[in-house]
Specification:
By secondary structure, the protein is of the alpha/beta class. It has 17 helices and 19 strands. It has a 7-stranded mixed sheet, with helices on both faces. A 5-stranded parallel sheet has the order 5-4-6-7-8, with helices on both faces. It is globular and about 75 Å long. Mean pLDDT is about 90; it is low at about 1-20.
Length: about 600
């Protein structure tokens, strides 16, 4: 039985139509772009300027990366690791079970091995047995493995008890993380996190893998000062060879693509396009049927990242880490095939869970006005590893903050939260926790995503507190989503040259969105391909141009419909490659009959 905000058990209704949000189209205002390089096309200059780019932001050179010495704790952490290397102590990398954690773990392992580390290994908690982060229970496992120095990656900033347990067992602890710290931080030997108090590092949105990369570059500098490489008679490693992994983790974690992150991602994508990436990444792109020579950031986000994440969601993330570490392309392909199978299983689970959630919401609400402001969903047999994706899908469909819960054990349920613009999810959970002491067992996360655990039996009480807090913090107009459009393209601008220009002008991603355009079209042809994808031929209003288009996962209650002859379409200009031929295609973000 599925529960949602409404505080009652809900019987599914099969007759009611699911309400789907049509986002309001808002065209970006024209802004001054005279400060940008003259060689850029007028369209691209305006697109860059509307995203706040300065002249220097257009030059994504590695030399323009922020300096490591502004990251609080990084030099202290590097010194501790260098001491451990000199003493030949056992170093254990403690990663998280998502793509950011897997890539962070891989970057540290590969870098340390390149720097001559003799005793280095990794440990990623099974999410179902140990939960998230450096818990006392996983510390005991690390102790059994002989760890003397623990390095957390993409986790640890909230692991107060875990760090205390490690210190009590005589281990040193270096925390590297990017999540927001709470009021108390662990008593670690060093903490590297740009979001900690007094850290001057300007890129607060850097991913966990980016923090790990910065630590490894600082460690290399520390070892250079100690003449480490000369004494071991090894070459100083080129850590730029790891940037393909850094790019993958950065995109997959959906962090804001500020200039520093765009530099990291751009450098990694260039390595992949040049055929100089890790065999594991090559194998994952192959199994996802992506052309490595034309890869863009969205391929990491929608093709590679989900396959890597599938290991941590359904099984052990060790499979994902081993795929990234692998040097043998044939072995990497076999592991990538396993990840692909896990991802297919994950998709099936997600589809079933989404249908159950939608049926429950149908029973609760007949229209938008009946919807709760904050949607909370719980079903005891849902899969813990997939509730985050479920929350994201429901959030996109209804444009409401969503928390999806699954049973963890007889004592607690675990939730995964996704938010909308204007609502800081971690701050919301902190507010609820302060008002209801003891109801939430633990929580943590970002502005847009968070996780929490509740005591069994507290779901209904949490629902009430959650919906009340959301209503306090949001205004009604924030419940209507917006699609920011870069305007309307003239028929003569819908061409392959502009599509290539925009593709190459990335990387595009979170808070640096790929250009969206809007316009009115006559629908010449429409048909369903696959299970839920609408294939279209569209004609511009003046009849000058016809172009192919595709809209994914459409509402089959509406489409196809031969009586719909005109539509307002929001789209991305894309290039479709099929059997070596390239054609122009519009990637439809929203289509509304007119």
């Amino acid at each position: 039985m599925c529960y949602c905000t409404g505080f009652v058990k809900l019987e599914p209704s099969f007759s009611q139509a699911v309400f789907i949000v049509i986002h309001k189209i808002v065209r970006r205002p024209k802004v001054d772009d005279s400060h940008l390089p003259a060689h850029l096309s007028p369209i691209l200059k305006q697109i860059y300027a509307s995203r706040g780019c300065s002249d220097s932001d257009c030059e994504l050179a590695l030399a323009n990366l922020l300096r490591p010495n502004t990251m609080k704790g990084v030099e202290q952490a590097a010194s501790l690791i260098a001491d451990a290397l000199a003493d030949n102590r056992k170093i254990l990398i403690m990663g998280d079970f998502d793509a950011d954690g897997a890539t962070s773990t891989s970057v540290c392992l590969l870098a340390l091995r390149m720097m001559g580390a003799a005793q280095v290994d990794y440990l990623i908690p099974n999410r179902f047995d140990y939960g998230y982060g450096l818990s006392p229970e996983i510390v005991a496992v690390a102790y059994e493995k002989g760890a003397e120095l623990l390095i957390t990656v993409d986790n640890g900033i909230s692991s107060i008890e875990g760090v205390a347990a490690a210190k009590a067992l005589g281990m040193q602890v270096v925390i590297t993380d990017h999540h927001l710290p709470g009021n108390q931080v662990p008593d670690a030997d060093a903490i590297v996190n740009p979001n900690q108090v007094d850290c001057q590092f300007a890129s607060k949105s850097i991913a966990g893998v980016g923090v790990a990369f910065y630590l490894m570059t600082t460690l290399r500098a520390e070892l250079r000062q100690r003449n480490w490489f000369q004494r071991l008679a090894i070459g100083e490693p080129n850590l730029a060879t790891l940037l393909d992994i850094v790019a993958l983790g950065t995109v997959a974690d959906v962090v804001s693509l500020d200039t520093n992150n765009r530099i990291l991602v751009d450098a990694g994508l260039k390595r992949v396009r040049a055929g100089r990436c890790r065999p594991g990444i090559t194998a994952l792109l192959e199994v996802a049927k992506r052309n490595t020579h034309r890869i863009v950031a969205s391929d990491f986000g929608f093709a590679v990242g989900p396959r890597l994440n599938a290991a941590g969601r359904l099984d052990e993330m060790a499979l994902g880490v081993e795929t990234l570490l692998c040097d043998d392309i044939m072995l990497a392909r076999r592991m990538a095939s396993e990840l692909d199978s896990l991802n297919a299983e994950r998709r099936d689970l997600e589809s079933d869970m989404q249908q159950e959630a939608l049926k429950s919401l149908e029973a609760l609400s007949l229209n938008e006005a009946d919807l709760p402001w904050g949607i909370a969903l719980y079903q005891s047999d849902w899969h813990q590893g997939v509730i985050g994706i479920l929350a994201s899908r429901i959030k996109d469909r209804y444009h409401r903050p969503v928390i999806a819960f699954a049973k963890a054990n007889n004592e607690e349920i675990k939730g995964s939260a996704r938010s909308i613009k204007g609502l800081h999810m971690r701050d919301l959970l902190e507010l609820i926790n302060a008002r209801n002491p003891g109801m939430i067992i633990k929580f943590g996360g970002h502005a847009m995503a968070a996780g929490l655990s509740l005591k069994a039996g507290e779901f209904d009480r949490f629902n009430q507190a959650y919906d009340l807090a959301v209503r306090e913090l949001l205004a009604p107009e924030q419940l209507t989503g917006e699609l920011l459009s870069d305007g309307e393209l003239l028929p003569q601008q819908m061409n392959m040259d502009l599509a290539r220009t925009l593709r190459d002008a990335g990387p595009w991603g979170q808070n640096f969105p790929e250009p969206l355009f809007d316009g009115y079209f006559r629908i010449v042809q429409q048909r369903i391909v696959g299970e839920r994808h609408l294939k279209l031929v569209l004609e511009t209003e003046c009849g000058q141009t016809m172009v192919d288009a595709i809209a994914f996962n459409v509402d089959l209650k509406t489409w196809p419909d031969a009586t719909i002859q005109f539509a307002q379409v929001v789209y991305k200009l894309d290039i479709n490659e099929f059997r070596g031929n390239e054609t122009l295609q519009l990637m439809v973000e929203q289509i509304e009959p007119r």
